[in-house]
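hiii, so i know i said id send this last week but things got crazy w the move. better late than never?? heres the sequnce for the chain we talked about at the cafe, plus the structure i predicted for it. fair warning i was half asleep when i ran it
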Amino acid sequence: MSVHNEIKRVTTHTLQELKRKGEKIACLTSYDYSMAKIVDAAGVELILVGDSASNVMAGYETTLPITLDNMIYHAQAVVKGVKRALVVVDLPFGSYQGNSEEALRSAIRIMKESGGHAVKLEGGIEIKESIERILSAGIPVMGHLGLTPQSIYKFGTYAVRAKEDEEAEQLMANAKMLDEVGCFGMVLEKIPAILAKKVTESVNIPTIGIGAGNGCDGQILVVHDMLGINNDFSPRFLRRYADLHAIMTEAVINYTKDVKSSDFPSTKESY
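okay and structure toks below
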């Protein structure tokens, strides 16, 4: 029996089952083949090709500049490295907001050209039509509520969302709408833990939290933050599992030193 047969692919149905059983769902971002391979082999259920690539891969201040072509490029690379996890790809800013036909075209391009398994869209009732249109083409959709980084200029801040009753009620209504139209899950970003738990209990689909407390069905972090490659970003919700910034810096310093002193390459390392 080949190894491939033993690897059971995670599907949207798998995530639904995990929620039903009360088992937590582990998710991380990835943007390239090498990283995706490691993240997938380590056992996460969902890999998000996030538009956070705009920040961590391209150095932009916000997620707004990244294009659909950029996202497809990153997703193609990730999909090649993944054998098990469900790969969800962000629809970038401007590729779905105002026009449900454009939203469908964008989603189809991602699915066809990258081989990703699903798309993620930010927002609630205002993008309902786009979500429904994408779903009607048989493309799985993940929602994203709370802090929606693509709306940074509307909010003017990356602060916690839905602390006021009115916004909390709106978020709850949007969550129920995402569930009812047929999304397979949703990300809840930077909202009070009590509200996130309430949302999680009120919907049938899995909720994935980032800065939304422990009551969600799963958690997600940006892989570069979690590994400490990015060391200038320290929000309260981030737990660093390694300090790769220090390790990588030291490795490059030592390499440079060895090259300068003619220590590298040695006779053994030469042909």
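btw The chain has a mean pLDDT of 95. thought thatd interest u
miss u guys!!
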